[in-house]
Amino acid sequence: MDGATHPGIKTGVVCGLISAVFYTFANIALRHSVAVDSFFVAAIKSAPAIFFLTPYLLVIKLSGRPIAVSRHLVPRFILVSVLGQIGGNGVFQMALGEIGLAATVPITLGALLIASAFVGRWMLGESVQRRTMVAITILIGAVVLLSQSGEPATVEGGGAWRPFLGAAYAMFSGVCFAVFSSMMRLSMQQGLQSATAMWINSAVGVVCLLMVTFYRTDMSELAALPVGLWYSMMLAGFFNLVAFIAIATAMRVLPIVAVHLLNASQVAMAATAGVVLFSEPLTHSLIAGILMTMGGLLVLASRRPAKTT
């Protein structure tokens, strides 16, 4: 996972697309779990990463290799993981419960794209080229169209303000994800291994999100959850782990905005899943948004790679 071989640009692009596919699978499982407390769902989603990564890190430790080359980076990464887990994953699940899959994913990714362009420039010193800005503009237009194509997922007691609240949740989640992913990339550039970063982020998620859950929720409600919901939450965690590994690999070789633009193909996937699996409306704005998303990705893909010596 942290081998000496540095992945190339093509590997980064492939991993960015793989992350989009598996994040879509995770989001479908999360959409099935909207009846459960949002922060508990996010906590269970973080658990599989701990289960799979702990043996891997133990093997590395027992072999004499360090699992944290730059230990001074760990406290800072723990803090940003709290933001990514509570403000990102927890609030994202709240948005799913308010406005559904087809609206939540594009709004979140739109906010992430905008925020990551500014955060990446400020935190990582990455330039945003003209072609990338054109791609962002097209994709933001697609986000606007797609966000108008969904219906609130919560039908009982849903006033006119619920879609606006759900959209606000999704936008806040996207900003938190942008800050977290930029800090993760910076930490890995400074010596924190990706596997260690994933483990820390997941452990922080389980602890912090369970604390929020215990504060908000009656434990008897969680004990009465049907088995199918537990399967959905655990599958979301497994899919999220695969996507997380893929996007971490992509971040090693691609600018942060390029990674998120590739990952923005989730918009079309989520819209399709919303229509096919959850009977969300197939509207003209949905179709136009998907086409604009593909157009934005084509603009990004047509960028000429920088020459290396």
Automatic annotation (TrEMBL):
It comes from the Bacteria. It holds the Pfam family EamA. The keyword Transport does not apply. InterPro entries: EamA_dom, EmrE-like. The chain crosses the membrane at residues 12-30, 42-61, 73-93, 99-120, 132-149, 161-184, 196-217, 229-250, 257-278, 284-301. Residues 165-300 form the EamA domain. The keyword Transcription does not apply. Keywords: Membrane, Transmembrane, Transmembrane helix. This is EamA domain-containing protein. It comes from Neorhodopirellula lusitana.
